Amino acid sequence: MFLLRKISSIFALLMLFSTPLLVGTSAYADEKPIIAYVKVLNGACIAISGDVERPLKLGDPLYRNDILKTEDQSSMGVSFRDNTLVSLGSNSLLKLENFAFDPDNNKLTFAVELFQGTLLYISGLISKLTKNPDEDLRITTPAGTVTVRGTRLFINAE
Amino acid sequence: MPSNPGPSNLGPSNLGPSNLGPSNLGPSNSEHNLREAITMIIKIRLKLLFPLLLLALAACSTPRGNYVILLAEDDGSVGEISVTNDQGTQTLSTINTVVEIPENKAPKKPRELADDIVAKLVAETEGAQPPQPLSFFFFFGFDSDALTDDSRVIFEAVLAEIKTRKTVDISLIGHTDSIGSVEYNRALGLRRAGRLRDLLVENGVVVSAIDIKSLGEDDPLSDGNIENDKALNRRVVMVLR
User: Fold this and answer.
1) Which of B125, B143, B181 to mutate to test the interface with A (most CBs of A within 10 A)?
2) Which of A3, A19, A87 to mutate: most B Cβ within 10 Å?
3) Pair B97, B121: CB distance under 8 Å
4) Which residues of A touch B94 (CB under 8 A)?
5) Angstroms from A43 CA to nearest CA on chain B
6) pLDDT at residue B74, as a whole number
7) What pLDDT digit, counting tens, does each position of A76-111 carry?
8) Are residues A72 and A124 in the same domain?
9) Do A132 and A118 have their domain in common?
10) Nearest-angstrom CA–CA distance, A153 and A137
11) Is there a contact between A90 and A124 (Cβ–Cβ < 8 Å)?
C-alpha cells in the first residue's frame, strides 16, 4: 500500500514535469506535419501541392496532399514515418492522400492514390499495428482499391 | 475516303456510295468488288490474327493494363491484399500472383506469374526503393530517462552510422515496464524518447528530422515476470531511415 501511494505521488509529480514535454512535442503542430522524406531520386521529380510545384531533392520532406510526379526516365523512393516504403517508376502520379502515425492516440492511417504509373509498396508499422487494415490502409488506383495486410506489392495503373 | 476534293467525284477511282453517275458504273463496279474482296480478306485475316495475337500475349503472360502483384518481403514472408472495385473483389495471398483489373470490370481471378516476368516488371521501382530502415534499442534504468552505460556505447556507434548517410530521418518510440500506471508510463516513455532526441540534436541531427512517440507499457519485449526481463522493457526503439 505504501509503495502504491509512493508510486502515485511520484506519478503526480512527474506528470507535472512531463506536461511541458508533451507541449514541447506539439510545438511543431502549427507547421504542416512531415509525413515522409525523399530517400532516392533519379531524374526529374516534383511535388505538387495546390498550385505550387516544388522540384524535389534528396532528403526533402513531404506532406499530406502532396502529389508526387515523376517524368520520363525518372523514379523516386520515399520513406514514411512509420517505415512504409514507396517507390515510383517513371511517368507516375501519386497523391499522398492521408497519413497518420500516432500510436499514442490509436490514429493510424495510410492512404495514397496512384493516378498512373508504377508503384512498389513495402508495408511499415501502420500495417502491423492497425486493427482495421481495410479502413486504415488503402491504395487507390483508377481501376480499384487495394487494401493491404502487411506485405510488399507492385501496382501498375493506366 | 478522307480527302476527296468535291467535284471530281466522278473519276473512276472513286468508290464512295454516292458514285452513281452512269458513265462510270461499269468499271467502278468491278473495281468496287475487287476492293471489297480485298477488304474482306484483310478483315478475315485480322479476325484470325487477333485472337492468335491475344493467345500469344497470354502465353508469355505479362499482365497488361491495371494490375496488382503480391510480392514476397525481404525475409521471404508474404501478407495478403485485396483488390476491390464496384464490380467485385479478389484477394491475393500467394507470392508472385497478379490480379488484373479490366476497365469497368471486376478484378480477374489471381494467377501466378513467372519469377523473371515479375523481376522485369518491378525492376524500375525496385531500383528506387529506399534502404530498409534500421532499428536500434536503447535501454534505460528503472523509472529513469538516462541511458544505461551499454546504450551509451551503442549511441556512439549509431552516431557514426548517421554520419555516413546523406539524409536521415529518425523515429524514437519510448517504452516502459509495467510498473506504475498506464498514463504515467506513456509519459515516461515520451521522456525517454525526448532525452534521446536531445542527445541526437546535440550531435548535429536536425530536430525536425526526429519524430518522438511513446507506447508506454503497451508493447513489452518480455512479459516482465523476471526482474532482469523488466529491464528489457525500459527502452527506446530508434528507427533510422
Assistant:
1) B125
2) A87
3) no
4) none
5) 11
6) 84
7) 999 998 999 999 999 999 999 999 988 768 899 999
8) yes
9) yes
10) 13
11) no
Nearest chain A residue to B77 by CA distance is A151
DSSP B86: T
What pLDDT, in 10s, does the model give residues A1-16? 444 444 444 444 444 3
Q: Which residue of B has its CA nearest to A42?
A: B128
pLDDT of residue A17: 41
Chain B nearest C-alpha distance from A15 (Å): 7
Place of cell 523481376: B119
HSE-up (13 A, CA, CB side) for residue A30: 3
Q: Does one domain contain both A27 and A77?
A: no
With an 8 Å Cβ cutoff, is A18 touching chain B?
yes
d(CA A70, CA A74) in angstroms, rounded, equals: 6
Residue B137's contacts (CB-CB under 8 Å, 6 or more residues apart) are: B151, B154, B235, B236, B237, B238
Coil/strand/helix, residue A141: strand
Q: Where in chain B is the domain with CATH 3.30.1330.60?
A: 134-240
Tell me the C-alpha distance between B151 and B155, whole Å. 6
Say whether both A9 and A47 belong to one domain: no
Asked if B158 and B240 count as a contact pair (C-beta separation under 8 A), the reply is yes
CATH number of B134-240: 3.30.1330.60
Taking CB atoms within 8 Å and a gap of at least 24, the contacts of B72-78 are B72/A152, B72/B96, B73/A122, B73/A151, B73/A152, B74/A152, B74/B132, B78/A151, B78/A152
Instruction: Tell me the C-alpha distance between B141 and B159, whole Å.
Output: 22
Domain that holds residue A95: 32-157
Confidence of residue B200 (pLDDT cuts 50, 70, 90): very high
- Point out which residues pair with A93 in neighbouring strands: A69, A116
Q: Which residue of A has its CA nearest to B184?
A: A11
Q: Look at chain A and report how many structural domains it folds into.
A: 2
- The 10s digit of each residue's pLDDT in A14-27 is 443 443 344 334 44
Distance CA A18, CA B174 (A): 13
A22 and A52 co-located in one domain: no
